[in-house]
Amino acid sequence: MSSVRGTGDQADTLRQMARSVKRTPQGNAVAGTAGEGQQGIRVLSVTSGKGGVGKSNVVANLAMALANQGKKVLIVDADLGVGNLDVLLGLSPQYNLNNVLSGECSLPEIIVEVNSHIKLIPAGSGVQEYTSLGQHEKLRLLDELDMLEEAFDVMIIDTEAGISDNVTYFTVAAQEIIVVVSPEPTSITDAYALIKLLATRYSEHHFKVLVNMARDSEDALEVFRKLANVAGRFLDISLDYLGCVVRDERLVEAVKKQKAVFELFPESEAATCFTTLAKRIMENSRQTRLKGNIQFFFRRYLDLPGGEQP
């Protein structure tokens, strides 16, 4: 499918005005004007139309694969109702995003080190208050992110599943959208519903599709074709096939041990898939139409045309 021309709306204008991030010799991030040849942080949103497609596992293992390639990665667990990335990674953080939103902590105080190349911003669990962020909470997060001094190569946001306000908030704010879909018919249907919402209401026209838990590469391509066919009939969007992660019992075993399969079984078939996925993402960086930098991350959503709010 062909790419879509810019809509000329306010969001597109803001994207063009956004500054890129460049690194100082000390490793701090400073603002530089776009077009100076500086490559800023990559902000990826990993989302899905329904639960049960292994999205959080994808995030954890993709981060490991990127770190293995020398990238500094910041993971944001944006499932503010039932965040579980800390559990998947065998961590027990004392504080989480709920403490930031309530004003108890600053963002740097809750960041947890996964390893020397990966850090995690954990989400809370079982707190309904922040399952739908208000304007005040969004501005607080914006201010906190602006104060992050450490430079990362990639930020990966693990959204909750579905089409809630929080999902659209974190997804639209990111530079690149990765939609995780499984071979189940309901997963394909729900992924289409999410893409349709983001395209028609939030003017998103570019999506990357990752097929998880596929039987093999041919199975994954068939899933992508089904999604692409229906999207091509009814939506003016561009879908890119990012790749697949095959079903692997090693991955199930890793989850039980609260480890990433990439870390526990680096030679497994699933780990190989994540290595390929990470390379593909970084190789495609030049072709990516970026929306802005880390400072621009949340503000982009707050400045949607017509002052539209979730």
Biggest β-sheet strands, sense, barrel: 8 strands, mixed
Number of domains: 1
CATH superfamily: P-loop containing nucleotide triphosphate hydrolases
Supply the number of helical segments. 13
Rough shape? globular
Tag the structure with descriptive keywords.
alpha/beta; two-stranded antiparallel sheet; eight-stranded mixed sheet; 10 strands; Rossmann fold; 310 residues; single chain; disordered C terminus; globular; 13 helices
What is the structure about, briefly put?
The chain has 310 residues and is an alpha/beta fold. The protein has helices spanning 10-17, 55-68, 85-88, 97-101, 107-110, 135-146, 165-173, 185-202, 217-234, 249-256, 261-264, 269-283, 299-302; strands spanning 20-23, 29-32, 42-47, 73-78, 112-115, 118-121, 154-159, 176-181, 206-214, 238-246.
Q: How does this structure look, described?
A:
By secondary structure, the protein is of the alpha/beta class. It has a single domain (55-299), classed as P-loop containing nucleotide triphosphate hydrolases (Rossmann fold, 3-Layer(aba) Sandwich), CATH 3.40.50. 40% of the residues lie in helices and 19% in strands. It contains 13 helices and ten strands. The protein has helices at 10-17, 55-68, 85-88, 97-101, 107-110, 135-146, 165-173, 185-202, 217-234, 249-256, 261-264, 269-283, 299-302; strands at residues 20-23, 29-32, 42-47, 73-78, 112-115, 118-121, 154-159, 176-181, 206-214, 238-246. The strands form two sheets. It has an eight-stranded mixed β-sheet with strand order 5-6-4-7-3-8-9-10, sandwiched between helices. A two-stranded antiparallel ribbon has the order 1-2. A hairpin with a 5-residue loop joins strand 1 and strand 2. Helix 2 crosses helix 12 (269-283) and helix 8 packs parallel to helix 9. The longest helix is centred in the middle third of the chain and has 18 residues, at 185-202. The radius of gyration is 18 Å and the shape is globular. The chain starts with 9 loop residues before the first helix and ends in an 8-residue tail after the last helix. Residues 1-38, 292-296 and 304-310 have low confidence and may be disordered.
